[in-house]
Amino acid sequence: MPKRSKSSQRWLQRQKKDPYTRKAIEQGLASRAHFKLEQLDKKFKLLGGKMRVLELGAAPGGWTHYLAERVQRVIACDLLPMEIPTDVEFLQLDITSDEFVTAMDAIIKDDQLDLVLSDMAPNISGIRAADQAASMYLVELATECAHKYLKPGGNLVVKMFQGEGVDEWVSERRQEFKRVQLVKPDASRKDSREIYGVAINARIKGKISSSV
Ligand SMILES: C[S@@+](CC[C@H](N)C(=O)[O-])C[C@H]1O[C@@H](n2cnc3c(N)ncnc32)[C@H](O)[C@@H]1O
């Protein structure tokens, strides 16, 4: 067997120690990310019966499976292929592409969704400013989807990295939603800069701006 590098040994050790990774394996879940959505859902009561949800950054599918068991319609999107639960509509597309916009416009009309979720993360380069900008770009695109497809009263949850652009995002969303909060679920790794922006109860459509 080839010798593992120090960094991959450290990664393996961290995986073995992590209680959420262990729980995900025991329960046969697609990813430990399942628990982040579960905790956000418990805190904000995000999901229920007849909801229609757009999920961005879905692979490998932890959130998608959680959603599929709880809401009426799930449209999931990711660059990568994944195992798709029955009845989930999956777009294997880049959210930055024209194809994504065309596909969304074909399957959904304005104002239809109850919830837009994004767990998208860029490929990390290690250059902090570049990674922050890449992450905020994905946040911006997810927020544009909320502007376009969220019904009044709907909710938006977006993964972001703590740093430049986050405070601005919060203050802009406060113009558009009744309640906006930054949250780090317990299942989010302590050593990661990841947080979630949660925007609850979109005000009437005319008051949601079209620019981020
Ligand atoms: C942290 S993972 C998501 C984990 C997932 N929520 C789960 O529960 O298993 C982030 C995902 O974002 C996706 N992603 C990053 N950039 C994207 C883009 N431009 N368009 C679509 N998906 C993207 C990646 O391919 C990756 O699968």
Number of DSSP helical runs = 7
CATH topology assignment: Rossmann fold
What would you call the structural class? alpha/beta
Give the topology string: H per helix, E per strand. HHHEHEEHEHEHEE
Q: Could you give the distance between the termini?
A: 50 Å
Strand order of the largest sheet: 3-2-1-4-5-7-6
Using only C-alpha atoms, the radius of gyration works out to 17 Å
- Any guess at the CATH architecture? 3-Layer(aba) Sandwich
Mind telling me the CATH class?
Alpha Beta
Roughly what fraction of the amino acids lie in strands? 15-25%
Instruction: Give the overall shape.
Output: globular
Count of discrete domains: 1
Helix content: 25-40%
> Cofactors and ligands present?
S-adenosylmethionine
The tally of strands reads 7
CATH H-level superfamily title: Vaccinia Virus protein VP39
**Integer average pLDDT:** 92
Largest sheet: 7 strands, mixed
Low-confidence stretches: none
